[in-house]
From TrEMBL, chain A:
It comes from Acetobacter oeni. It comes from the Bacteria. This is Thiamine biosynthesis protein ThiS. Signal peptide: none annotated. InterPro entries: Beta-grasp_dom_sf (IPR012675), Mopterin_synth/thiamin_S_b (IPR016155), Thi_S (IPR010035), ThiS/MoaD-like (IPR003749).
From TrEMBL, chain B:
Its EC number is 2.8.1.10. It is found in: Cytoplasm. This is Thiazole synthase. The keyword Cytoplasm applies. The active site is at residue 95. 1-deoxy-D-xylulose 5-phosphate binds at residues 156, 183-184, 205-206. Belongs to the ThiG family. One of its GO terms (molecular function) is thiazole synthase activity. InterPro entries: Aldolase_TIM (IPR013785), Thiazole_synthase_ThiG (IPR033983), ThiG (IPR008867). Residues 4-248 form the Thiazole synthase ThiG domain. Catalyzes the rearrangement of 1-deoxy-D-xylulose 5-phosphate (DXP) to produce the thiazole phosphate moiety of thiamine. Sulfur is provided by the thiocarboxylate moiety of the carrier protein ThiS. In vitro, sulfur can be provided by H(2)S. Homotetramer. Forms heterodimers with either ThiH or ThiS.
Length: 65, 256
C-alpha cells in the first residue's frame, strides 16, 4: 500500500498507524502523529486503519525560537 | 509576576534555534540562566532521529520548555501543531504564532485571537505572539490568554523596540498581565530597555544564537535583564526636555 509519510511516498505493510510507527522504529520515540492534517494522539493510533494515499505526518522535538 | 501560576527563575526566555552546535546551545542556556527555553516541532526522518537527540539535550538542561507554533499561517495549522506539541513536550503551555505576512513575519492577529480562543477552551495556557495593538490585546485576554507577547520588531531583525510608545501604552493598560517582548531584540541594551519599561520578560533567540560568541552574549543578556529589572524596581527618574544642574548652585564662589 502506498502512503505519504512527511510528504514522501512509501510502500508499507502496516495496517494501522500504530503498526506503522513501530515499523519505522518509533515505538519508543518522542513523536506526534497526524493523518490527513488531523492530530492522532498516541493511544488512538491503533484505531486508525491506513488506506491507500493517506498523508501521515510524524513530528518530533526540534530547535525553535 | 506569575505566568499561569508559575514563577519563572529569570525574566530571560531563550530560543534554541540556529546555534552553531548542540554543545554551544547547552552552554548558552546555562550561561543565560534562562527561565524558559522555546522549542518547536518538525518532521522526523525514520533513519535520523534528530528530534530524539534534541529531546535528550532539552531534558538534561532541566529548564521549563515553551513549545511554539512557528511557521503556522492558519488557525487550523496552529491548533493542530499545539495539540501535537502538548503530547510531545507534556506541557499545556504554547507560544502561539499565526503568521500573517511573510516579509515581516508579523502575526495574523485575527487568526491569532481565534486560535487562542480554541486552545484556551481546550485547557492550553496560551502565550500569544502579537503586536502592541491594545484592541487585539483586549481580545486576546477575552479569548482566555493570561500572558501577552508583543513584538519589539520583526522576528530576527535585531532592531530592538520599534514602538516604545506602543509598548509603554500596553504596559500601562494591562498592569496585572505578564508582558513579554518577543522578537526583534538584537542587543542586551534592548532587553534592558524592555525590562526598564516594566515588561516582565523578554524572549531572545537570534541575538544570542547568531552572535560570534553565543555563550558570552548569553551572559550579556543575563546581566542586561537583571539590570533592567533592578532599574524598573528602583523607580527611574522622569525624562525632561530642559537641563537641570545636578551640582548645587548654592555656595558657588564668585570668581568672575
Amino acid at each position: 500500500m502506498k502512503i505519504l509519510i512527511n510528504d514522501e511516498a512509501y510502500t508499507v505493510t502496516a495496517g494501522t498507524l500504530a503498526a506503522l510507527v513501530a515499523e519505522l522504529g518509533f515505538s519508543d520515540a518522542r513523536i506526534a502523529t497526524a493523518i490527513n492534517g488531523e492530530f492522532v494522539p498516541g493511544p488512538a493510533r491503533e484505531h486508525h486503519i491506513l488506506v491507500e494515499g493517506m498523508r501521515v505526518e510524524i513530528v518530533a522535538p526540534m530547535q525553535g525560537g | 509576576m506569575l505566568f499561569y501560576g508559575t514563577r519563572l527563575s529569570s525574566p530571560l526566555m531563550l530560543g534554541t534555534a540556529q546555534y552553531p552546535s548542540p554543545e554551544i546551545l547547552a552552554a548558552a542556556v546555562r550561561e543565560a540562566e534562562a527561565g524558559v527555553i522555546t522549542v518547536s516541532l518538525r518532521r522526523e526522518a525514520a533513519g535520523q532521529r534528530a528530534g530524539q537527540a534534541f529531546w535528550s539535550l532539552i531534558r538534561e538542561l532541566g529548564v521549563p520548555v515553551l513549545p511554539n507554533t512557528a511557521g503556522c499561517h492558519t488557525v487550523k495549522e496552529a491548533v493542530t501543531t499545539a495539540h501535537m506539541a502538548r503530547e510531545v513536550f507534556e506541557t499545556d503551555w504554547i507560544k502561539l504564532e499565526v503568521i500573517g505576512e511573510s516579509d515581516t513575519l508579523q502575526p495574523d492577529v485575527f487568526g491569532l485571537v481565534e486560535a487562542a480562543r480554541i486552545l484556551s477552551s481546550e485547557g492550553f495556557r496560551v502565550f500569544p505572539y502579537t503586536t502592541e495593538d491594545l484592541v487585539v490585546a483586549e481580545r486576546l485576554l477575552a479569548a482566555g490568554c493570561e500572558v501577552l507577547m508583543p513584538w519589539g520588531a520583526p522576528i530576527g531583525s535585531g532592531k530592538g523596540l520599534n514602538n516604545v510608545f506602543g509598548l509603554r501604552a500596553l504596559r500601562a493598560h494591562f498592569p496585572g498581565t505578564p508582558l513579554v517582548v518577543d522578537a526583534g531584540i538584537g542587543l542586551p541594551s534592548h532587553a534592558a530597555q524592555a525590562l526598564e519599561l516594566g515588561y516582565d520578560a523578554v524572549l531572545i533567540n537570534t541575538a544570542v544564537a547568531k552572535a560570534g560568541n553565543p555563550v558570552a552574549m548569553a551572559r550579556a543578556f543575563r546581566l542586561a535583564v537583571e539590570a533592567g529589572n533592578l532599574a524598573y524596581g528602583a523607580d527611574p527618574m522622569e525624562a525632561r526636555d530642559m537641563a537641570a544642574p545636578s551640582t548645587p548652585l548654592l555656595g558657588r564662589p564668585m570668581l568672575g
